[in-house]
Structures are given as structure tokens and as C-alpha cells.
From TrEMBL:
The chain crosses the membrane at residues 38-56, 68-90, 96-116, 128-158. This is Sulfate transporter. Its main location: membrane. It comes from Populus alba x Populus x berolinensis. Keywords: Membrane, Transmembrane, Transmembrane helix, Transport. Belongs to the SLC26A/SulP transporter (TC 2.A.53) family. Pfam families: STAS (PF01740), Sulfate_transp (PF00916). It is a multi-pass membrane protein. It is found in: Membrane. GO terms for biological process: transmembrane transport. The lineage of its organism: Eukaryota, Viridiplantae, Streptophyta, Embryophyta, Tracheophyta.
Amino acid sequence: MRPRSILHVGLACWEGIAVGRSFAMFKNYHIDGNKEMIAFGTMNIVGSCTSCYLTTGPFSRSAVNFNAGCKTAVSNIVMAVAVMVTLLFLTPLFHYTPLVVLSSIIISAMLGLIDYEAAIHLWTVDKFDFIVCISAYAGVVFCSVEIGLVVAVAISLLRVLLFVARPKTFILGNIPNSMIYRNVEQYTNTSSVPGVLILEIDAPIYFANASYLRERIARWVDEEEDKLKSSGETSLQYVILDMGAVGNIDTSGISMLEEVKKVMDRRELQLVLANPGAEVTKKLNKSKLIEKIGQEWMYLTVGEAVGACNFMLHTRKPDPLKEESEAYNKV
């Protein structure tokens, strides 16, 4: 089979699954994409033995069946028999039927499937999903169903790649009278911990976002140090990374943490890890990064990490040389 034919078959099966899921929403039933692909593949393999045309679930005929009140797959048998009788005996009667009449039947059946309220809901909830919807609609109307699906999936994949490559990072603060730490932008009543910067990484760490996260962490540290210097508060001593949302990490991510650790050491800051997952901990252990950071600087929760940092801040002996250097820098 030629590559173009294989691509055509794949897009047709993809179209059939999308059509099935569209009508499943109206009837409140579940569509298993894997089983649909197996069914389409089996039909096309059997049909290829008899030079059968590509088998799929087209949008137009499905819409006509839906509006005609068809309930089961028996309608396909009735339709196949009707098409066979028409092609064998009734073709001369439809020879002069205008194409406008045939197209009007399909258009009238598909107009009822356009859900304006759903599009408005997408615009209200998520503007990006609305763009995907409109792009798919424009592709279907002006090109074909396959083109519309390809455009929609391509934009959705672009969104996923952007999310992975530019994950969100937050500064966490303490909610008063609790051991809970949340995003300071979302919870404006949170308070910062003196001498401690708490950062949350909200995505797995891969090669695609390792460089961005390294730069982002360095930027957060610079901004926090500038903020403390301008306000005259306690200098920054500890940087806590909340890794509860980091589901996985690759070698590039481990290298990024090693570089962050070296930068913190040069700045005389202590890197602390909080709540790393089992998979992440296993990889950090195999790469010997836990030994470099120190087993004592890994904690189950952010609250425990902050408590340990506060304890070290209050019990550590002051360094006269460092205090003299800081005083000289202020002057």
C-alpha cells in the first residue's frame, strides 16, 4: 500500500472515531477508541480482499441516520440494501437529481449538530479550547473533516508542548495559624518565612524544561535576595523546592538539579527538597544526587522542611567574617 493510501486510511479511521464520540455525547454512551480502531482495521483488511472501498464512519451519513431516528447497527444493513437496489435498478430515476437537493439533505441533518452554547461555554471557561474548537470548525467547513481534525490535534499538542516546556513555578507562603503552604499569588493572606524561599515546581522535569527551570529558580532567588536587601530583613539562607507535583524526572532534570545545587553552594545557600515522589527519589538516589545534597536535607512535607530550616537559623552560631562582609556590602 502506498504511503498516501496508508495516511488516508489512518485519517479516515481517526475521523470515524471522532464522529462516534460526537454522537456518543448526544446519546450519553461511551466510545472506546481502541475497539473502534480494531473494528475499522478488521473491516478494511477483509474489504481489501474484494477491492472494497475504504470503510469508515463518515460524518454526513451518520448525521442523516441520527436525524432519521436510527437506533442500532441494523440501519447500516437496511442502508446497504437500499443503496444496492438503487445502484442496480433505480439509478436512471436519480440521474437528473440536482446536487443541491442531495447537499441540502446533508446540510439540514448537520445543522442540528452545531452547539452554539458549547462554544460560548468554551470561550467563558478556556480561551485556548475555544481557539481549538474554532480552528477545527474552520478546517472542516473550508477543507475537510480530516483537515479539521489534524488542525485541532496539532494545536492541542502545541499546547501540551508549551505546558511541558514552560511549566509553572510558584512562591509558597504560610497560611496563618497552620502548617499549610500555598501559592502567595492565589492566597494573598499568606506570610513569608524569614530567611527561607519556598518554590513549587508544578510539572515533571524533562530535557524540554530543564534549562527554563534552572533559569527560573535563579531568577526567583535573585528577586528574593534583592527584596530582602531593600527591606533590611534577614538574609536568604535556605531554598526549598516542593517537588510534590514532579511526577518524573530524566537525566537532564537531574543534571539541572546538580547545577542548581552548585549555584546555591557558591551563594552559600542550602538547597532543600520536599516531598519528592517515589520514582523521582529512586532516580536521585541512583544518580548520587541525594548524597550531594545530603540525606538530612530531604523532607516529607514543606512544613517539616521549614521547621528544620527555622531550627537551624535559630541554633546556628553566627559567623563574624560573614556578618562583617555583609555589613561592608551594605555600606
